[in-house]
Write a structure and sequence with these properties.
By secondary structure, the chain is of the alpha/beta class. The protein contains 16 helices and 12 strands. Helix content is 45%, strand content 15%. The strands form 3 sheets. It has a 7-stranded mixed β-sheet, sandwiched between helices. A 3-stranded antiparallel β-sheet has the order 9-12-11. The longest helix has 24 residues.
């Protein structure tokens, strides 16, 4: 995998084990991104006034083929946090309604739900999924115990941010469909890290980032909604697309509402087909398998070092290219993180969650065993474990 490292812009002196936070864009994709920006600036009126819709249609076609979704069921948005705000503000929850989630969710998205529920009188409920966990059946049972007759929405991360746990969302979506509960899935970490088939997933609404594991530039994300759900979603910003939909100038209300929300640079979204091509050219399925094997080695070595067992099975049911390894509860995470970077040039997040502390390790195609060795060496010295 060392050959891939030369295709990224990352600092070669840093052992970058934190792809999960913001991603990293390969040089060929970044070049495509800059080419789109130059084209925009060369003739802004032509680009934004006449070419914009057709260019984004092509980019949505490529993304739809990758995610198995129809072109008019997808729109590009800036990031996953933008997506959760669209959804939370659109659903018109009533006092006493319940939105059920887990205690593994991303903080910014939690805040969006809490904000809207506080305005509507609805309840945002975190159902505990306790770690360690060994089977999908345990996760489903623990989560479904939180469903009540007031549950109107189930909101779940496909792959959680704090714990890097892959949740069995397809099973939960199937149960929710039978119960008449709307399902909203945060796929911030899914595309590019695991195969994503939106039809098979069975969720009503999915939003996710493309700038992380799918290697697109920052500012590329998507919002998907099943056709029968799209009329329930409203734009955060009302602009010309709303007018087009009212006059019948375009065939998709969903696309009209969300594609044009005022003047902005669409170059990140237009670069998504280049990111898909990059992964195809680099045989990304093989890259992912190699990354997964390296991740298992990393977590296993940390667990051996701390003499603490993994918090979930190290297989692709529960993790792919990102996972956590437990750290002793007495660990000073702020000190450890600063010294890992300053003394060992290891960039990796350290997280306190519920009654656990752990290191969240991301392995991407540019990583090698040398990066894992640097992490283990740093932990061994700084945790004073021998």
């Amino acid at each position: 995998m060392n050959a891939l490292k030369s295709l990224f812009l990352l600092d070669p002196e840093v052992h970058f084990l934190n792809h999960g936070s913001f991603g990293a864009c390969p040089i060929p994709v970044f070049n495509a991104y800059q080419n789109w920006q130059r084209r925009l600036e060369r003739q802004p009126v032509l680009f934004l006034g006449r070419e914009y819709d057709s260019l984004l249609h092509e980019a949505r076609l490529a993304l739809g083929a990758y995610l198995n979704a129809q072109v008019d069921d997808l729109v590009y948005i800036p990031n996953a946090t933008h997506g959760v705000n669209i959804v939370a503000r659109s659903l018109n929850l009533a006092p006493g309604d319940e939105v059920l989630t887990t205690d593994h969710e991303y903080g910014a998205c939690d805040l969006a739900w809490e904000f809207m529920c506080s305005k509507s009188g609805a309840k945002y409920i975190h159902q505990p999924i306790r770690l360690p966990v060994q089977t999908e059946e345990e996760v489903v049972a623990q989560f479904w115990a939180g469903v009540t007759e007031r549950t109107r929405v189930i909101y779940l991360s496909h792959i959680t941010s704090p714990t890097a746990l892959r949740l069995p969302v397809q099973r939960i979506c199937a149960l929710a469909r039978r119960a008449g509960i709307l399902t909203v899935i945060d796929a911030a970490h899914s595309p590019g890290q695991i195969p994503v088939d939106l039809q098979a997933l069975g969720a009503d609404i999915v939003f996710g980032n493309l700038h992380k594991w799918m290697l697109a530039p920052k500012g590329a994300a998507f919002l998907y909604a099943r056709p029968e759900i799209q009329s329930r979603l409203e734009p955060l910003v009302v602009s010309w697309g709303y007018g087009k939909s009212r006059t019948g100038e375009s065939g998709s209300r969903f696309v009209d509402y969300f594609q044009w929300t005022g003047t902005h640079d669409p170059s990140a979204a237009l670069s998504v087909p280049a990111a898909i091509r990059f992964m195809q050219e680099q045989d990304w399925e093989t890259v992912r398998r190699t990354c997964h094997n390296l991740l298992i080695q990393a977590v296993t070595q940390v667990c051996n070092l701390t003499q603490m067992p993994p918090l979930y099975p190290l297989n692709e049911t529960f993790c792919s290219q990102m996972a956590i390894a437990p750290l002793p509860l007495q660990t000073d995470l702020a000190m450890l993180k600063a010294r890992l970077y300053d003394e060992y040039k290891v960039e990796v997040p350290l997280i306190a969650w519920n009654d656990h502390k752990f290191v969240r390790i991301s392995v991407q195609g540019y990583n090698s065993y040398e990066d894992i060795e640097a992490l283990i060496r740093g932990l061994q010295q700084l945790l004073a474990i021998h």
